[in-house]
Amino acid sequence: MNIQKVYSTIDVHVAGEAFRIMRDAPFIHYQNLEQLNGKFPDVFADEINLLLNEPRGFAGLTGCLALPPISQEADLAVLFFNHEGRVPIQFGGIVAVLTAMLECGHLQERASRQYQIETVNGLILVTAMMEKGEVVSVMLESESCQVVQTGISLPDSQIETKFSLVYTDQLYAVFEKQGMSAEIDVKDLAELKSWGKEVFQILDSTIPIQGVILMEDFPLEEGRIKSITFRKDQYILRSPGFGPTAACYLHLCFKREMAKNQSFVNESIFGSCLQMQLTKQTENEYQFTYTSRGFITGMQTFVLDPTDPLPAGFLLK
To answer: Taking 90 as the threshold, does the pLDDT of residue 217 lie above it?
Structure first.
């Protein structure tokens, strides 16, 4: 085998969502993280294809580039990318990267348990609890979130449930599971995907949403919901989702009274959970604290043989 390129990665899942972390990036000059992020789609195109596309990756995989920080206040820097290039900040990815760096010894444990992560959105303070060399809990705060509009009806559709538009990490349309025979369960996945595709087709030409959320509400005292999030590319989010969980909470805030100090748990279609709590509220904006955990699933070395007939990989949708 004639090896042309070699990359080592650490794979981590956070509540079922998979992240592939790389540290040995190509050497290029950049003065700040924003400049590197701007160059990313062109300079790292080969790496994106090699590490994320099939047969080495899959459609739901998100890449994380862990770097030495530029800011003197930060412990590490991170950029995120997917099959289309760079992507905005990924809170699950921050949990994944911090877990991998601490458990693999690339980042020393701090007595304060607090770490500053440098992103294109600025510094993010993260708290990581460790026991016997293992990260058992990661807490971080969301960016400001807000409800854009509630009580919206789908035009020219048999779907009668009204929805809310909520902006957290991106713009979501939040629907409640009312009048649907399908459960938010893997056994009804085909029907759920058909529903999500129909909603996107209706909304795509009128509202620039990035995700559609279908949620099932439970009694207030249980402090939990179950949800499934459909991405714009028609894939399903593999976890409850940090942004979608906040979006569901805000949707419910306009439906009923929510206790400020009440923990809120969102369960995915696969049974994984994400915990969240409202920490700051102004007249129109909300901020949350997420609690989650990452699990290392593999440490791998990927190679590219110049005779490989699939050098850029492929994606099955």
So the answer is: no
